[in-house]
Specification:
heterodimer; A: 118 residues; mainly beta; seven-stranded mixed beta sheet; 47% strand; B: 111 residues; six-stranded mixed beta sheet; 0% helix; 59% strand
Chain lengths: 118, 111
């Protein structure tokens, strides 16, 4: 089955520790995204990548880092600089920008990773 | 985020219709989407509409788009307890392939 796999489902971070959230997709999508979800605040974009070896900051990139070495994978590292990391993290992918953005570009989501601080 | 607005909560009785509303501000929207999120899960695409359409129907779901007022709605007919979830509207714009999500509406279906 094609889809997006996020792991782990639950993650705990100690103070001063970096943790990495995994996101893998087998949909052959070019674009991948990381969102943070806090209660009552909807989804906020952390980073996105439109193609391998390229990524851009979203609205709340501070304290996070990403890499895009392979088309299938877009891991997110929550660094110790992120002082309030407790949240639900969602990864998504889409086919990518087509025809200048006029074509529908549906995002497909993983099941999420819930990160808590110990 | 702040360019796409939704009311936070909606309660309906089982069997009634639910109407979830969304307003957006950018006139360059190309496609508009509705996603459903069940507790502790990711977002599941329900339906989408191209910005030059007024209405789209898909089984129990009806999407209405008023482009002049920049207003999008999702009507769920014969609402069931399994429809209880958070519903997000989202848009893509002509400028790129980012999604802009609303804050989500939490729908509670009362048996």
């Amino acid at each position: 089955d094609g889809g997006i796999t996020q792991s782990p489902k639950y993650l705990f971070r100690k103070e001063g520790q970096n943790v990495t959230l995994s996101c893998e997709q087998n949909l052959n999508h070019d674009a991948m995204y990381w969102y943070r979800q806090d209660p009552g605040q909807g989804l906020r974009l952390i980073y996105y990548s439109q193609i391998v070896n390229d990524f851009q900051k979203g609205d709340i990139a501070e304290g996070y880092s990403v890499s895009r070495e392979k088309k299938e994978s877009f891991p997110l590292t929550v660094t110790s600089a992120q002082k309030n990391p407790t949240a639900f993290y969602l990864c998504a992918s889409s086919i990518g920008s087509v025809a200048g953005g006029l074509a529908k570009n549906i995002q497909y989501f993983g099941a999420g990773t819930r990160l808590s601080v110990l | 985020g702040e360019d796409v607005e939704q009311s936070l909560f909606l309660s309906v009785r089982e069997g009634d219709s639910s109407v979830i509303n969304c307003t957006y501000t950018d006139s360059s929207s190309t496609y508009l989407y509705w996603y459903k999120q069940e507790p502790g899960a990711g977002l599941q695409l329900l339906t989408y509409i191209f910005s030059n359409m007024d209405m789209k129907q898909d089984q129990r779901l009806t999407v209405l788009l008023n482009k002049k007022d920049k207003h999008l709605s999702l009507r769920i007919a014969d609402t069931q307890t399994g429809d209880s979830a958070i519903y997000f509207c989202a848009e893509t714009r002509i400028t790129g392939n980012q999604f802009y999500f609303g804050t989500g509406t939490s729908l509670t279906v009362i048996p």
